[in-house]
Design brief:
single chain, 592 residues, alpha+beta, TIM Barrel, Immunoglobulin-like, five-stranded antiparallel sheet, 12 helices, 27% strand, binds calcium ion
């Protein structure tokens, strides 16, 4: 029962059911007998995941091919909606820039980290009635098949977005009957998705020709997709009829795209979501962001990682939205699940840990990393130089973080993380480093906050932005305060200072240049306040003070060697490498 033709599908299923009863196969045995590859498979009108549980897609579409640089922002934000699936728009190169296999691998690795099942699609043949365009889509999947093989448990292939624009079924069916066996012959065993004719909005093609198309798949591992806009999802009855009639042929169907309205009318999105839940039918809303040309209202989100729109709120937070109804692919939640390659052979070693971050603390370093797909545990290695030698610091770490304690402040430590399972060990992650430092505790009630006004360390200006906070319970006279910003002046030219803006009034501020001899500091700018500057109220602050320093000959600085400069502080943060004196006494910060 590994493979059977659709024509015999229903009868054989009955026989299989009878055999299951008689021989008491476990579900695992039945699945192993029925499927030549561990991955998604079709059982009646259900799509099943590789652990044998029904998988009901809940998620969104993401227009990756037009916004290739936004992936790292978009995927975590999409995962945060609770989606279990993301449908990724790719290009086979006919109409847009082809997404290379390396790019696809990058997408799939990132989605693995965020436990998102991926439905890949190519968009170039959208609306075309040309079989040649469908073949180009199929050829694309064969070109990148090495990215698909071995990921049958988490990657689904939507052969061609909305191929076939006409409201007609014959050529639509024969086109798919040609390319589906072609994809299978190439060794692609992933679940395939076929969009209905009529730009995805003519589900009659599924009702009438769907069984013939399904029969062309020697693995019987394909599902249909309806795109529900005004012509296929315009009202509740239309939504229900289209879902019911598609399921009636005995094959799974999903709503691969839907909106809340469209060019020529309303869409009943509430029924799509609620009836989809009632009938265990998957759905993927169009689309994360980036819509234009008059359908901007279809954006679910404001930018790759911005806030949800009203449409996004409905899809994510609605009564049948992703947060209420989405369940992750069980492969990501089943302890001990190990991915198996397409040939059914040995389990594979996990992926290399990515997004490794080391954060220095007082006598310690905190490490965290993204979860590696297929990992049972992690090993953290440490060295005192970036080249090593690295020694195992912690083994069998089952989470994705580790705190290395008892370290010497001022010493730089280097770390790598590796992932393990029963099949082996991943390659090591990139090296990260951190230098533990004593935590600075302010002695009084005044605290200097700093951010960089420009992050270019080699241009002709130094731009520290400053704000003094009074955390005490009585007001502080500004005229008693002196701020110092320390740097190396990199040359002999005179320095010009400007208060570009100060919330308390730049006319109440003074700026003078002083010198000293210390590491990374031969010069400082001292900011003071006039008699009329007033006070910092209890619990208040000075507000923004925007200082700018130039040389008289406008040559460049090198800020990278400046004591007070920290380009990572792009938002206001307490910063002890700027000092504050009150009536001549140091009350905040560490002098260089
Ligand atoms: Ca609507
Ligand atoms: Ca600068
Ligand atoms: Ca400098």
């Amino acid at each position: 029962m590994k493979r059977f033709k659709r024509s015999a599908h229903k009868g054989l299923l009955l026989v299989l059911s009878a055999m299951l009863c008689l021989t008491l196969f476990t579900p695992e045995q039945a699945q192993a007998a029925e499927h030549s590859v561990k991955g998604f498979y079709v059982s009646g009108t259900n799509l099943m995941d590789a652990t044998g549980k029904p998988f009901i897609m809940r998620g969104v579409n993401h227009s990756h091919t037009w916004f290739k640089n936004d992936l790292e922002a978009a995927i975590p934000a999409i995962a945060a909606t609770g989606s279990n699936t993301v449908r990724i728009v790719l290009s086979n190169g006919s109409r847009w820039t082809e997404d290379s296999i390396a790019d696809v691998e990058r997408i799939l690795a990132l989605c693995d980290e965020y436990k998102l099942t991926v439905m890949l699609e190519v968009h170039d043949a959208t609306g075309s009635d040309s079989v040649a365009e469908l073949r180009k889509a199929a050829d694309y999947w064969v070109r990148i098949k090495e990215a698909l093989i071995g990921r049958e448990d988490r990657v689904i292939v939507n052969i061609a977005n909305e191929w076939y624009g006409s409201w007609d079924s014959s050529v639509w069916a024969t086109g798919y009957q040609e390319v589906i066996p072609y994809l299978r012959a190439a060794g692609i065993k992933n679940t395939l998705v076929v969009d209905s004719a009529g730009w995805g909005q003519y589900p009659n093609s599924i009702f009438t020709k769907g069984e013939e198309v399904f029969a062309s798949d020697p693995l019987g591992n394909m599902i249909f997709s309806i795109h529900m806009y005004e012509y296929a999802g315009g009202n509740a009855q239309m939504v229900k009829d289209n879902i019911d009639n598609a399921l009636a042929i005995g094959v799974p169907v999903i709503i691969g795209e839907f909106g809340h309205k469209h060019t020529d009318g309303d869409v009943d999105e509430a029924t799509i979501m609620s009836y989809g839940q009632e009938k265990s039918v998957g759905w993927l809303a169009w689309s994360w962001y980036g819509n234009s040309g008059g359908v901007d209202y279809l954006d679910l989100n404001r930018g790759p990682a911005g806030a949800l729109t009203d449409w996004g709120q409905a899809v994510v937070n609605g009564p049948f939205g992703t947060l209420a109804t989405s369940k992750l692919n069980s492969i990501y939640t089943t302890p001990g699940y190990e991915p198996v390659p397409a040939d059914g052979g040995e389990a594979t070693a996990p992926a290399t840990p990515t997004r490794v971050v080391a954060t220095a603390g007082d006598g310690q370093v905190s490490l965290r990393w993204g979860s590696s797909f297929g990992a049972a545990s992690y090993v953290v290695q440490r060295a005192l130089t970036s080249e090593g030698p690295y020694e195992d610091l912690a083994a069998e770490v089952t989470g994705t973080s580790y705190v290395d304690e008892g370290l010497s402040n001022g010493t730089t430590y280097y770390y790598k993380v590796l992932a393990l399972n029963s099949a082996g060990t991943s390659p090591a992650s990139i090296v990260v480093q951190a230098t533990p430092q004593e935590t600075y505790v302010p002695v009084g009630n005044l605290e200097v906050h700093y951010r960089v006004g420009d992050t270019s360390a080699t241009d002709n200006q130094i731009k520290p932005y400053l704000n003094i906070h009074n955390t005490g319970s009585s007001p502080v006279e500004l005229k008693d305060l002196k701020l110092r910003y320390y740097f190396t002046r990199d040359g002999d030219a005179d320095l010009l200072t400007f208060i570009d803006w100060a919330q308390l009034g730049a006319q109440h501020m003074t700026a003078t240049v002083g010198s000293l001899e210390s590491t990374n500091a031969d010069t400082y700018i001292e900011l003071g306040f006039t008699e009329g500057a007033g006070v910092i109220p209890a619990g208040g602050s000075t507000g923004d003070i925007q200082l700018r320093v130039h040389k008289s000959n406008w040559t460049n600085f090198d800020e990278s060697n400046d004591y007070s400069y920290d380009p990572t502080k792009t938002s206001y943060t307490s910063w002890e490498k700027i000092t504050l004196h009150q009536a001549g006494e140091l009350v905040f910060g560490l002098m260089p």
